[in-house]
Amino acid sequence: MKLTLLSGTNRPGSNTRKIVSIIADLYQDLGHPVEILDLADLPQDIFLPQSYAKKPDSFGRFSETILQSDGVHIVTPEYNGGVPGILKYFIDMLKFPESFEHRPVVFTGLAGGMWGALRPVEQLQAIFGYRNAYICPERVFLPHVSGLLSDDGNLTDASIVDRLRSQATAFVKFAGQLQAIR
C-alpha cells in the first residue's frame, strides 16, 4: 500500500515539518513507509496565472504522487483561523475529480493556540467531502505545538506520540480496507 504524507505549509522552519517527520517514523515503525510531499518544494512556476489553464510540467511529480497514492495523511497548521492558503491552492491545482475521489484521507492539525487546528481540519473535511474522498474519522489535534516539541524536534509528551501512532495504525487499516474494494 502506498501512502502519502502531506506537509500542509511552505513556511520556513515550520513545526508542521517536524510533526510530519515524527509521523513518517511512526508509519515506518508500522511497516508502511510513506512518501512525503512538502509544499515548500512546490515549483515556483505553479504560481503563475497561466497554471490554472495548463499545469507546468514541474508540477507533475506532485500530481502523480497523489494520483498513485492509496491514501493521503494531511498535516495542517492553522493560519489566521483557517487552512493555509498554499494548501488550498495545492488542492485546487490537482486534477478534479480523480485526485481525491474515493481516496482515503486523514488529518492531523497543529496550532499555536488552544484548539490545535480544529478549524482548518473542519474546513478540510468539507473540501475533501466535496471532492468525494473517504475521510478517516481518526483526527489528531496538537494545541500549543511549540510547547510539545523539544529543541531537537521530538515530541516531549509520550501520550501525543501514542495518539499519533494510534491514528497512523487506524489509517493504515482504513486505507487498506478501502483499497480492497477500490
Automatic annotation (TrEMBL):
GO terms for molecular function: FMN binding; oxidoreductase activity. Residues 1-142 form the NADPH-dependent FMN reductase-like domain. SUPFAM superfamilies: Flavoproteins (SSF52218). It holds the Pfam family FMN_red. Gene3D superfamilies: 3.40.50.360. It comes from the Bacteria. This is NAD(P)H-dependent FMN reductase.
